[in-house]
Structure formats: C-alpha cells, structure tokens
Amino acid sequence: MGCKATVGPGVRHREITERRHKAPNSTRLSAKRPALPETIVFGRRPLSSVKLAQGFWAPAFSAARCIVPMRGYFEWTGDKTPKTPHFLHGDGPLSAAGLTWSMGLPNGEKSRCFVVITREARDASGEVHDRMPAFLMPDTWDTWLAPEKLTGDRKAETLAMLEHTSGDVASTIREHVVDRKVSNSRTVDSTDPSLLEPVA
C-alpha cells in the first residue's frame, strides 16, 4: 500500500488520503482537516501541534482525543533560508496522538480542527529536530480514544502509554532529505509522489 501524499507541519490540507494502487476492490481512508482562515490563530501563529506537557491535560481537551494518520512528516534543518527539508517515516502508515475540537468561523459555520501532540524527539527524529509526534500503536488506539477525561491514575497511565509507544515507533523511524519544492505549500502539488523521494 503506497501513500500518494503527506502533510507538512502547519500546512492546512482538506484531506489526507491513503490509496491502494492497482487494487480493484480497494478502500479509501480519509481524514479531513478544514482549511482555516489566516485570521484564526493561537497566539501569533496558527496552531499545528501542542507539547505533551502543555495544557493538553485541561478538561476541555483531555476528553477530546483523536488519532492523526500519516505516512510520515517533514522537518527542516539549517540556520538560513532556504532550509533543508527532511521526510521522516516508518515502514508503513503511522498514527499520532491528537486533540480535536469544534471552532466557530467568522461566517458562523463550525469547523472541526485538530492538533498533533508532540514530545521530545529521539533516535532518527532527534537527529533532525528536538520534537516529534507522540505516536500510538494499533493496540493502544481504543485506549487513547476512550471518552473518559484524563484525571488521576488515568492521566499517569496515559502518559506512560504515550512514552512507551512513542519510543517503540521512534526506533523504527528513518529520514532522508527531499526536494526543497515541498517547502512551498502554496504552489506544490500535494499528490506528487516525488515529494517523498530522497535527493542527493
């Protein structure tokens, strides 16, 4: 199964799609993220991730957990522009721990939003950036999505679970440099498979 598109941090795409190639009865799985107006920000910048130790444990968020599927993710290195983009990935689709909520838009409509929870990076991820997504394994999906609020022992157990699963997944992550065209989210074709190919 191959993925024909991936999403970079902070890039607002309407759909992340995993496609099966040349399979007559294949299924298509989609995770939608509404495109938000530039005026909707948290602080000075649009919010695309939240640190594991931050207000994620606040009651408003702790019962609104989601799973963010991804083929991989991009990080950039270098002190000067243009920076060098790296694609970090495993052997197959990854699942990151996320938070979701409904936001009111200026036109009166409601939009479902999400952020990816991040933690201190390690292994290959740590060689490129100091943060990485908090990853989940399939056998922890139901636990993560349980609707109960995270208080007391549940909070400690969930933190321990994320620490364990993130470490297991991080040990399988690999990275390679990709073409700088991926850095321009306004002009790049997000379905272009060459975005994920390594460059010398």
Q: What is the count of structural domains?
A: 1
CATH architecture: Alpha-Beta Complex
Low-confidence stretches: 1-22, 27-47
Helix content: 10-25%
* SSE order, one letter for each helix or strand: EEEHEEEHEEHHE
Strand tally is 9
Examine the coordinates and then state which fold CATH places here, giving the name of the CATH topology.
Answer: hypothetical protein yedk fold
Structural class: alpha+beta
**What is Rg?**
17 Å
Would you state the CATH class? Alpha Beta
Mean pLDDT reading = 74
Largest sheet properties? 7 strands, mixed
The CATH superfamily turns out to be SOS response associated peptidase-like
Number of helices: 4
Assess the beta-strand content as a share of residues: 25-35%
Shape: globular
Distance between the termini: 26 Å
GO molecular function, one term: lyase activity
Region (Disordered): 1-30
EC number: 3.4.-.-
InterPro entries: SRAP, SRAP-like
Write up this protein.
Pfam families: SRAP (PF02586). The protein is built from four helices and nine strands; from the N terminus they run βββαβββαββααβ. It is α+β, with helices and mostly antiparallel strands. The chain has one domain: Alpha-Beta Complex (hypothetical protein yedk fold). Strands 3, 4, 5, 6, 7, 8 and 9 form a seven-stranded mixed sheet that branches.
Summary tags:
two-stranded antiparallel sheet; seven-stranded mixed sheet; DNA-binding; hypothetical protein yedk fold; hydrolase; covalent protein-dna linkage; single-stranded DNA binding; Abasic site processing protein; alpha+beta
